[in-house]
Write a structure and sequence with these properties.
The chain is an alpha/beta fold. It folds into 2 domains: about 130 residues, Response regulator (Rossmann fold); about 210 residues, Rossmann fold (3-Layer(aba) Sandwich). About 35% of the residues lie in helices and about 20% in strands. The protein has 12 helices and 15 strands. The radius of gyration is 20 Å and the shape is elongated. It starts with 5 loop residues before the first strand and ends with a helix. Its EC number is 3.1.1.61, 3.5.1.44. Keywords: Chemotaxis, Cytoplasm, Hydrolase, Phosphoprotein. Its main location: cytoplasm.
């Protein structure tokens, strides 16, 4: 039997980009570019004609911008979409909006030396398109269901937890937003590693800060972890670790080699928490492709920490949580909508 090839529709107003993306994707035996579209209206007709498995979508489009087209698509015919965006402040903001609307992931759109840059990014583009073809779309609807409202308690932190670690990759920007905006402002410090490009980290943290009662910041240098009410997001190109210096906890940044092909790495962050905080910590691994974080979460559990992983049904990509569960790192498996209450009960429950 012949191997199934994922069908891809490339939507971009630039003929050059359409050509380069098609050449990159067609170079892989598991992918087939079935159509090219220069604007959303042409894309709409080719979706009907070809029924693609994945769409690559330019952020800025003529006649109808990419975000409006994506909103229409997710409402009428949800399917996996990879955004192709520029590494600029505006590009980052629009891309984060696209992820909120329902896009699975994004790839950078180079502005110089296009042909050379696209060849260099070919592996990432191919990998993300294949991953998207297998993704579960429509998870933004999870938050439309009546949530278990997280009570803004100010009770004593009975278990003495000093830090919470959250790790995520594909689908994680919205998973993290949904969790963090439901948490009370008196939580212990939370450290976050999300696989994200460096140019997107600042806008991502700012976006979270606007919707959360907690104060969210992108870590730019070694930083003391304040007692409560703060979220510290790893920068997009450096590892974030938690270290204990004379009884005080700090975020410390590292330029050491990527782990599981990632920097920042969830494994690096979780492993540091296991070593510096141990049983007085909580670790949760969320949606994402690959296995980053599984080893570190196991180390946390072995050190006595409370650990959990997101379940398959609520994950965009059930890769990282699945491996963590299989290796024994997760003591609990939770639906995404249960995570915020799980954390509050662990900290303030009777």
């Amino acid at each position: 039997m012949s191997q199934y090839r994922y069908k891809v529709l490339v939507v971009d107003d630039s003929l050059l980009y359409r050509t380069l993306i098609r050449e990159c994707l067609d170079s892989d035996s598991e992918l087939e570019v079935v159509g090219l579209a220069a604007d959303p209206y042409e894309a709409r007709e080719k979706i009907k004609k070809f029924n693609p498995d994945v769409i690559t979508l330019d952020v800025e489009m003529p006649k109808m911008d990419g975000i409006q087209f994506l909103k229409n698509l997710m409402r009428l015919r949800p399917m996996p979409v990879i955004m192709v965006s520029t590494l600029t402040q505006h590009g980052a903001d629009v891309t984060l909006t696209a992820l909120e609307v329902g896009a699975v992931d994004y790839v950078p759109k180079p502005s110089l030396n296009l042909a050379t840059a696209m060849i260099r990014e070919r592996e990432e583009l191919i990998s993300k398109v294949k991953m998207a073809a297998q993704a579960s779309v429509g998870h933004t609807n999870l938050w439309n269901k009546p949530p278990n409202v997280t009570i803004d308690r100010q009770h004593f932190n009975r278990s003495g937890y000093q830090v919470i670690g959250l790790g995520a990759s594909t689908g994680g920007t919205e998973a993290l937003r949904g969790i963090l905006e439901r948490l009370p402002k008196h939580m212990p410090p939370i450290v976050v590693t999300q696989h994200i490009k460096a140019a997107f980290c600042g806008p991502f943290a700012e976006r979270l800060d606007r919707v959360c009662r907690l104060q969210v910041e992108a870590v730019t240098s070694d930083t003391v972890l304040l007692a409560q009410g703060r979220v510290y997001v790893a920068p997009g190109d450096r590892h974030l670790t938690v270290v204990n210096r004379q009884g005080h906890l700090y975020c410390q940044l590292s330029d050491s080699a990527p782990v599981e092909r990632h920097r920042p790495s969830v494994d690096v962050m979780f492993s540091s928490i296991a070593g510096s905080v141990g049983r007085q910590s909580i670790g949760v691994i969320l949606t994402g492709m690959g296995r980053d974080g599984a080893t570190g979460l196991l180390k946390m559990r072995q050190a006595g920490a409370l650990t959990a992983a997101q379940d398959q049904a609520s994950s965009v990509i059930w890769g990282m949580p699945r491996v963590a569960i299989e290796r024994g790192g997760a003591a609990k498996t939770l639906c995404l909508t249960e995570v915020a209450n799980f954390l509050v009960e662990a900290i303030y429950g009777d």
